[in-house]
Amino acid sequence: MSNYPPRILSAIADGRLYKLATPWKCPVVPWLVSWRVGRRDSILPLSSTRWCKAGLAFFHTSSPLRRAPSKKYPPLTHLEIEQMKVLLLKGFQVWEIALSIGRSELDVRRSLRNNDGLASLLRKVKTGRWSSAEEHVLLEHLKERSVPNKKMIARRIGRKVDSVVRQIKKLANERDAPMPLLSADIPLDNELSTSERETLEVRLDRILVGLTKADKTDKWRRVLMGTPRAEWVERILALIPTPVGHILAASSPPTISRLRSLEWEDTNKMGVYTWILTHKLYNPFYPEHYVYVGSATKYGEGLSRRKFQHQYQQGGKHSSPYLKSRIRKQGLDRKGPFITLLSMDVTSSEPNEVVKARQFIVLAEAIFTIWLGALTEGREGTKEEHILLRSLCPWSPEQISYGGMCSHNPLSFDISYPSGYAQPEDGLCDAVSSRGL
What we know:
Elements: H1 6-13, E1 17-19, E2 32-37, E3 49-51, E4 57-60, H2 78-89, H3 94-101, H4 105-114, H5 116-119, H6 132-144, H7 150-157, H8 161-175, H9 194-213, H10 218-225, H11 229-239, H12 242-248, H13 256-260, E5 270-279, E6 289-296, H14 302-312, H15 321-329, E7 332-333, E8 338-344, H16 351-371, H17 383-390, E9 403-404
Parallel strand pairs: 6-9
Antiparallel strand pairs: 1-2, 2-4, 3-4, 5-6, 5-7, 5-8
Helix pairs in contact: 3-4, 7-8, 9-11, 9-16
């Protein structure tokens, strides 16, 4: 201690500074020594201040050391204390009192520390009806985060977690607007009318034209050019179930309840499916439900195996890392229903036949992804492409009540040959193995 300048020793004796347990000296400037302020209201305006990784302050001790006047916080007036007492009796928390009387939370807490009578009135957990200020804080948090942090909100507001959950559900019920429904007098089991068939053909052809212009691999470009659009339209429409056809030909997008009314085909056939995912805790500022469209092209396993992989093999090699990450981050329930949009029986295991079937199924997946509005807005570098593809949907995004979970255009990846088979010499059907699901 004797090595320190007299003014430092004087500051230590006065209790204005205390030496850290492990003082740090700068190798470049030897007189740069680490100190901390001894009292909260002691502010030392020194010539230079630096911080190391541990967050310790380093003061240049060669500058004149003098104690700055502490910042004065005017105490609460008698009227403010009376107002504070009334609010405490109503169960208000510190942050609410600060807003009500126009003072900082620090001022309110200082008054509580100095007044045991007021401190005894403060409730640890607030009960009863929610105030407008509490609802405002809750709404601001819900706008910022799609997945509400219940514990953080409860701590901030001074409520129990159960109370926060109930209030979020109440706000969700109040904010939910009725969505346009399909006409109830059109049973989905009835045969498609002539106008519905024409609507399906027009919409399907428009999406195919858009996919022809969109970005895709060279092999997919040759596949699309090798078959007339009319043939693709005819083959796809022939395999679409009648209930699905009614929904796709409707003037308004399907609701989640309408999609849930469709059936799931538990089969080893190849096919295209949709998976409905729901928030575990609904945030009224974000969609409650999300729709994912995928395909099952593994010969002999088909749709049944694909559903099993989604629900029970979260870490499987065929699972999409982006999909798994988004389900986890958005707090979605993996046990949502699956719906079959299209299925196709492949009777031959001959590799060329399997690959042709995969081409057809993946193309149908791309079409249904656009048709149902299941594409996301896209990440950096893909937003423009996603805007183009989303514009091909027959309904506007504002009409669709659910969110999309599909991160990319399925035609941006080539399909693969079945494992163990050689690729053809023309190379039209070879691709990355990730599409062979």
